[in-house]
Amino acid sequence: MDRVLKAARASGSLNLSNRSLRQGNSLQNSLLEVPDEVYRNLEGLGGDDKWWEAAELQKLILAHNCIESLKEDIRNLPFLAVLNLSHNSLSQLPAAIGELPQLKMLDVSFNSILRIPEEIGSAASLVKFDFSNNQLKELPSSLGKCLELSDLKGSNNLIASLPEDLANCSKLSKLDMEGNKLTVISENLVSSWTMLTELNASKNLLNGIPVSIGGLSRLIRLDLHQNRISSIPSSIIGCHSLMEFYLGNNNISTIPVEIGALSRLGTLDLHSNQ
Fold first, then answer.
1. Could you report the per-residue pLDDT of 212-261, keeping only the tens digit for each?
2. Quick one: three-class SS letters along the chain?
3. pLDDT digits (tens, 9 = 90+) for 6-40
């Protein structure tokens, strides 16, 4: 472990995945604690190493361990750009996650997280956020302050609605909310996401498709299968980049003629409808 930590000081990248690490109140003695050195910046390191040969930690991978909590000391890594905590046993994230101004990629998928702290909105550089396969019922409205956000993945949670503040995330290009409890995606949100190329809201409880969908001229893939949708708005003609459209397992009985004007559409899946 010492060798790995020492190498990380030189490279700025630390991978401690698949090491049976724990952090929290677990009494499983066979597991190792996350080393305190992980949370230290250059100023917090001992004098054994030459400081001019060291690099601030920019990439930290703690995936596939048994970590139950992340220390607030994560704030000591202000240059961190990539943080991967996927496949652990986290139930929450520390408020200090918002004190990582350089964080661009955050992966907390496959945990047991119940809520995302409001402080996430202060991680203003965030570009990609994966919180899929958790136990979230809602998202913090402060996520709308992450103006650089382009890839949001929240599949397989319990989310019933999306905060309207996400309309501020105008750079969003990929949104995956498959397997949640969404009943609607508001007209305002859809009309704000003009850069969207992929939208997956399959396996939800959606009753319809927003008319504003027609404003998504860059949309290439739209997956809405297994919902409760009964009609397709004629405004779909505005999605002239659309190549894949999945609407299986819904309540659709008629298709608007405008579908025929989508010249790039190669896949239209309407299986198991009316």
1. 999 999 999 999 999 999 999 999 999 999 999 999 999 999 999 999 99
2. CHHHHHHHHHHCEEECCCCCEEECCCCCCCCEECCHHHHCCHHHCCCCCCHHHCCCCCEEECCCCEECCCCHHHHHCCCCCEEECCCCCCCECCHHHHHCCCCCEEECCCCCCCECCHHHHHCCCCCEEECCCCCCCCCCHHHHHCCCCCEEECCCCCCCCCCHHHHHCCCCCEEECCCCCCCCCCHHHHHHCCCCCEEECCCCCCCCCCHHHHHCCCCCEEECCCCCCCCCCHHHHHCCCCCEEECCCCCCCCCCHHHHHCCCCCEEECCCCC
3. 888 789 999 999 988 888 766 555 567 888 888 88
